[in-house]
Write a structure and sequence with these properties.
19 helices, alpha/beta, 29% helix, 556 residues, homodimer, 14% strand, eight-stranded mixed β-sheet
Chain lengths: 556, 556
């Protein structure tokens, strides 16, 4: 096993597309700070999330387990109380695990109650926060409607804004995610028509700089390095509402927007789930060029701001001498359609949604040989938990964690038995799509399996699959799922899916090492089934003969 | 929903073959008391366990979930701490759940510690005892060898024997499961050569009458019916060691033993796992006629004794007026090869191993029309948890419980959407079979899928499947798993297996009703993604417009 890593800074952006970075080839968006990190580390070009939606994707990141294994199938579905988290694994290895920002974790309140665990005990709090010790938890969605708020917590960000003199009770809504119109009025950031106007907040007080400041404060605390730590710095942006403060709001315009990846052909007899998705409001909205020309410049500006904040953070780390002992990971929980394929949001399996940026800077000398390289191995979000456990100096408990450590790849090794496919899942049971398809909850599920070329999407509920050939059709415009010519490819991909679906995922309470110890143990504990006269027992003293006399009543 | 049932007596025998009862057609073994129960209730002729081995099968009985779902893959693999048990469900419905006898439950000690649950708290004790409140826990295997005891608990049975004046520290081993030879010496019950000699114990003190007495004492306690209860009366016998006290030991002889179900053809190019099983000591032993002629009469005698004890128990219930308000279930956790197919023990999927007897007496008038009938629907052990929950008056929480209530069948209804296949699993990772096949732990797994005619056994690890046609080959002597003529049957059965393997089994922390409530909820909590100018919002006041003025710095 390689040397351990002292500290890990695990940075996640929300809804950041893999191809909206300079180093991944965006033509008009430059991200020099993230590019610099990539030049010092390794960039993974085939990294996929286990579900293209915040909550489920993150529960996979934070447990190292597939969605079908941890069961938090969709946003706000609780992570069941028995699941072991990254924090549990790291603490067992002597490393703390802190959270600054978003997790989208929903606590299993029923489970906690059933097990008698007070939610405000140390263990209860960790179970409620996906295993992290919370420095700051902010999921960045402080909306309110006729039925009340989306998130019933107290917003640390709103508290911060008030401390800075903002008068609003909900500054997230009235300042950071509202825009100032030219007439001096303010309107909601939900109205994309106006989102190229500046956010109604001073730039240093907007969400991304605020969280960066919180992270620097945390890192700068006296005694911070007394114990090894992982800090999950989890940003809220560039996730919608696509509102950005001045001067960023003016940095990009319609001329910087790349054309949508879509074709009229996609609307011709589309797969039923794809069709239902295209009918949703967000998809129809992002199919309009005027929406794209408003939303995408804002989205790009949010990324630009994020990159500048990375510059601020990396400069701090360099000056504080932390680059020598801190692994830095930058990734995202999923992408954003932005009008590609006539869709908005994520929730489906085209690369713009399910593929993520992933940059890992490993400070260890073992990684020197790969600095600045990219790696095209098939990587899954669940691999990070495994990587971090190994970095903390523990063997990956592969009876629990389904991901694989990326350390060999970071260190220039090419494991011969690397995975052949990545898996991603989508539960759309609570969506408009399920409603319009009249799909029962349990059948409103999709599975993606991708082998680097072929991408199969299986749909439950008796629907046909989708199939894309990313070699001949890298833009995924041609669904071959019902084309008779591709039956053998579909079958091969289904074989992969089914080998995966039969996997052992719940034997989490006993390790392989313990199984080894159990093998052949029973006879040595006196369980001697199959003997006829004892001559079958080679080992002396294995069979214990009773020492008592026969009872008279048995001899009568 | 039908009326509730006041009390449930859930009787399980261990290793009782489905076809070793009078009412299931055994030619030489008569079981009038169990037959009488069958005549008052319903007998299920196609009931299958979810794993033909004690611990895993029972964890499925006690959770209502498949082995792949609960993860207790084999004996002494812990049931992970988050699993919801029958006891949890029943208590939530106002019914207590008591245990008298065996569960083969292994507590998830690591999980309890991780969650900070003291094992001796009420919740910790229930988690350690598979959800039951323990009247008496005795797994009936109090052996000891050079490495110490198999079971480190204190044996209630040994305590009982000592209270009756038996001098041995371990009366289970020295009396109840030892035999008295004619010369006055005593030998171990493991030596099958001698097991037609009487057990070294007085019949009323042997395990089956002892547990029956405990059950009657429990039922007779003052105030017992203050609250509804389920009592799991879980016998140890006729599980090996096949030792029975006088006079039962003399009731059956070689002339009562039915011929083995096997053919020389089965040894011709057998499936690798089947071949490895045939090589084990217990299989070689039970393939010998002299072993069968010793073991089977004892096994039959243990069942005869059990039936007599059922007579004692049912008489008590009748005299106590309990037949009017007590559902009585009699079943087994799996069968016993007894030399059929050249095998001993269970651990594989021929009917003699994986099919179980199941008799349900339902006191409710709704069941009057079906009394004495048999039912050939495909039934799984996991159905009992669902049945009991419904009997207790609660809807079956089918996001947790994978079995289905048998109440409709008991009440003469024929649900149109009943299951098409039953599933059973086997993890042989810690066995000699895995060792001789050099099979990695995770690949040492088998899945059975049976549709009432075709039985497919899938083996992980790159091995071929087995296939039996129980219509043309009811004795399962001809493995068609590699016969090219049956490719379409295999594919059809694999489709069933894979539909099952893709099932939703871990979304246990949120019910379907809660999902219903979530549908379309976000906009009413202020999440309004996809708006361009607000004209898309039909509902008035859905979109909250900020009330604050624009900040001057945003307007400069």
């Amino acid at each position: 096993m390689p040397n351990t890593v002292k500290n890990i800074l695990f940075i996640m952006f929300d809804q950041l597309r893999w191809d909206y970075l300079g180093c991944t080839g965006h033509p008009t968006l430059k991200t020099p700070h993230l590019d610099r990190l990539a030049s010092k580390g390794m960039r993974f070009t085939n990294a996929y999330v286990q579900s293209p939606i915040c909550g489920s994707s993150r529960m996979s990141f934070y447990t190292g387990r597939y969605v079908q294994s941890h069961g938090a199938q969709r946003n706000n579905f609780p992570l069941k109380v028995g699941e072991v988290t990254l924090g549990d694994h790291l603490r067992a290895a002597g490393m703390d695990a802190f959270l600054i920002g978003k997790t989208h974790m929903e606590a299993d309140a029923e489970g906690l109650e059933r097990l008698g665990i007070p939610p405000d005990s140390v263990i209860g709090a960790r179970l409620s926060e996906c295993g992290f010790d919370v420095v700051l938890r902010d999921d960045g969605l402080w909306t309110e409607g006729p039925d009340g708020p989306y998130d019933t917590r107290v917003s640390p960000y709103n508290t911060y804004l008030r401390s800075k003199g903002y008068p609003a009770e909900n500054g997230w809504s009235e300042n950071a995610n509202a825009v100032a119109l030219e007439n001096g009025e303010v309107t909601s950031g939900w109205f994309m028509k106006y989102i190229n106007r500046p956010a109604n907040v001073a730039e240093p007080d907007s969400e991304t700089p605020w969280l960066t400041g919180q992270a620097i404060d945390f890192l700068d605390q006296p005694g911070r390095d007394d114990r090894p730590w992982l800090c999950h710095l989890s940003y809220i942006k560039p996730h919608w509402p696509y509102v950005v403060p001045a001067p960023y709001n003016e940095m990009f315009g319609p001329e910087d927007v790349v054309p949508p990846v879509r074709s009229e052909d996609e609307k011709n007899d589309p797969h039923p789930v794809f069709a239902a998705y295209m009918e949703t409001l967000v998809a129809r909205s992002f199919s309009r060029q005027e929406v794209r020309e408003k939303a995408i410049p804002s989205y790009m500006a949010l990324i630009k701001q994020a990159d500048d904040q990375m510059g601020r953070l990396f400069t701090y780390l360099e000056e504080a001498g932390r680059m020598e002992n801190t692994m830095i990971v930058v990734t995202s929980d999923h992408g954003d359609y932005l009008g590609d394929h006539w869709l908005g949001e994520k929730n489906f399996f085209h690369d713009c949604s399910v593929k993520i940026p992933l940059i890992i800077y490993d400070p260890r000398p073992e990684a020197d040989a790969t600095r600045g390289q990219s790696c095209d191995a098939l990587v899954e979000a669940i691999d990070l938990t495994a990587t971090f456990i190994e970095c903390a100096g523990k063997e990956v408990p592969d009876h629990i964690v389904e991901g694989r450590s990326l350390c060999p790849l970071l260190h220039g090794e090419a494991p011969g038995d690397w995975r052949e496919v990545v898996i991603s899942e989508m539960d759309y049971s609570t969506t408009q799509m399920a409603k319009s398809l009249s799909m029962p909850h349990k059948d409103a599920r999709l599975f993606m399996v991708f082998d680097g070329r072929w991408k199969l999407v299986h749909a439950e509920g008796g629907l046909p699959p989708l199939l894309f050939d990313l070699h001949d059709d890298p833009d995924e415009l041609k669904d071959l799922g019902r084309d008779p010519a591709y039956e053998s490819e579909r079958r091969r991909m289904y074989d992969h899916l089914h080998a995966w679906s039969r996997r052992l995922s719940q034997r989490t309470a006993i390790s392989d090492a313990k199984l080894d110890a159990m093998q052949g143990k029973y006879p040595r504990q006196g369980v001697l089934l199959g003997l006829y006269d004892g001559s079958e027992v080679q080992e002396e003293n294995l069979c214990k003969v009773p020492a008592v006399p026969a009872r008279q009543d048995t001899l009568d």
